Amino acid sequence: MDLPRNVAKVAKVENVEDARRLLASGRYVADASLATAVFLALRLGRPLLLEGEAGVGKTEIAKVLAETLGRRLIRLQCYEGLDAASALYEWNYPRQMLEIRLAELGGEAGAEGRARLAHDIFDERFLLKRPLLLALEPAGPGEAGPPVLLVDEIDRTDEPFEAFLLEILSDFQVTIPEIGTLRAPSPPIVVLTSNRTREIHDALKRRCLYHWIGYPDAARELEILRLRAPELAEALAGQIVRFVQRLRTADLFKPPGVAETLDWARALLALDQAALDAGAVNATLGVLLKYQDDIEKVAGGGVQGMLAEP
Q1: H helix or E strand, kind and range, residue 110
Q2: pLDDT tens figures, 182-235
Q3: Of 307, 165, 140, whose CA–CA distance to 238 is shortest?
Q4: For residue 64, which of 231, 224, 230, 245 has the smallest C-alpha distance?
Q5: Per-state percent for the chain, helix, strand, coil, to nearest 5
């Protein structure tokens, strides 16, 4: 859970162009279709489901929205076996047991004392709030509105968790048997991401606005590089983008995403590399490619061929 680093840069998002400028103010280069999806999600109050390859900027959308809108970012990182206790809430059993022992030492006895104790140990102060429950809370001091809830890599969970999530996303409320129903005074901004390691159920997709984020074209990737690594020389930035774009056309198990492009640019800067050459590229392929089979396929002659292309 992160607090916004600065206040809202765009007071209101009235149209698609406002949404594009909002993202740009957070150093995110969005095309018209993505800006439209973000605008509609904000205007209609609908969750936004972003699918695409790893490293293309899906998670960054939620981070930028939190930063530029002055909201708290609440992140639920999904994984296989994620359950309600980890995502929603659980009771602080050690503290409850301590409260019971203190009551016993204090001499509380009888039916009335036990009833009061049973009520007291299920007070909210013993509740451990997880990301989904935190997202239902009102905006805190210094926050411009309800939080941004990022449900990251929803495809890593299983279908029962998806079904559980439907209830939260439909009404933005949850019922805790010992306390009652807790409702969000204002719905959070919800962004879900998926790397499409499995298909998301239609029931969840129907509750969301959907957008696929693909690899950027050369012009947009160069613009991203200029924004995120402004210290990079223009000539080297162009060489980096051209090489990465060619690399993505190769028959690789996992082509590099924009995140790898940025990492590679920073690595080349750290090595004081002024221009691309075969030696530097071969030495740093592990920054771009994360599978040995891909590295072996490209290294050596493959690198020289890509560098030689006009």
Answers
A1: helix 110-120
A2: 899 999 999 999 999 999 999 999 999 999 999 999 999 999 999 999 999 999
A3: 307
A4: 224
A5: 50, 15, 35
Q: Which stretches of the chain score pLDDT less than 50?
A: 1-10
Give the closest residue to 190 by CA, choosing from 12, 48, 42: 48
Determine contact, residues 239/279, Cβ cutoff 8 Å: no
Last residue of a domain, one of 167, 197, 213: 213
| Separation CA 100–CA 5 (nearest Å) | 42
Task: Give 255-265 pLDDT, tens digit per residue.
Answer: 999 999 999 99
Q: In what order do the strands lie in the sheet with 148-152?
A: 73-77, 148-152, 189-194, 48-52, 209-213
Which residues are 233's β-sheet partners?
none
Whether residues 55 and 151 share a domain: the answer is: yes
What pTM was estimated for this model as a whole? 0.86
Query: In which domain, by residue range, is 291 found?
Result: 218-305
Q: Counting beta carbons within 10 angstroms of the beta carbon of residue 185, is it exposed (0 to 12), middle (13 to 18) or buried (19 or more)?
A: exposed
